[in-house]
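Hmm, how's this folded?
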Amino acid sequence: MDGDTLYTIGELARRTGLPVRTIRFYSDSGVVPPTDRSPAGYRLYDIAAATRLDLVRTLRDLGIDLDTVRRVLTREVTVGDVAATHAEALDAQIRTLRLRRAVLRAVAKRGSAPEEVQLMHKLAKLSDEERNRIITGFVDETFAGLEVHPEFAAKMRAALPELPDDPSPEQVDAWVELAELVGDPDFRAAVRRMAEFQSEESARGAAREGGQDSGQELTAVTVEKVSAAIDNGVDPASDAARPVVDALAAAYAGAFGEQDGPDFRARLLHRLEVGSDRRAERYWQLLAVINGWPVPPSLVPVFEWFIAALRH
């Protein structure tokens, strides 16, 4: 386009690719007013108007409303400010769409009933703060008024669900299951019993493990010996299980600073029965899925074997 040349609305439409009705609308709105008019009253546009029209089209293509476009053209706001604001809005829309996509994929995978779809959508769209309140409320209720092992309490309070902006269907599934789990009164009662037992043990000075490392060592030796027994087909109620039980009972007694014997084994059995709950293990597995952590292997079969063997 030449600087001194004026173009009719039809010529401007052909050069820009915009429909005549769109250019006419922008003209009537005062966004791209005509530069002049012909003797017959037809609108005429110069190169500045054409450039202004290109900017309007670009901003509109980016989803910016006409009022904001007008403010940009009159320099009430800068293009940079508008771009930043709209980028933030698009980020929020993208997060919402990704979450909806994950929920829909999870629904398709589960074949959910209408009521479950509503629950999944409601739970999935909660903010991080709202999700954390569900978990911290569960933890606060569990430990209320109890003096529990500091490491255990800290672990429970620090492990919060952080659903990513683009969650997988598995992560949405895990969050819904976790929310349902911590809302289950029976599960809350079971975890409360675990916390009460720890509090009682601490009060009578019986929980003298050497901290987290000692607990991990006991778990490791239990997994090693019991897994070998399971692999060899040893029935926990058989005589063949006795050497495994003896070795483990001695290891636990040494860690607790106690003497192995019937009384100690009775207390050990009670400790394991209180602490071995498939739902408690599932709690940590679900958190791992939600947060993208490695999912820990199930230890429940190992400790269930040990508990059955101790009973006999």
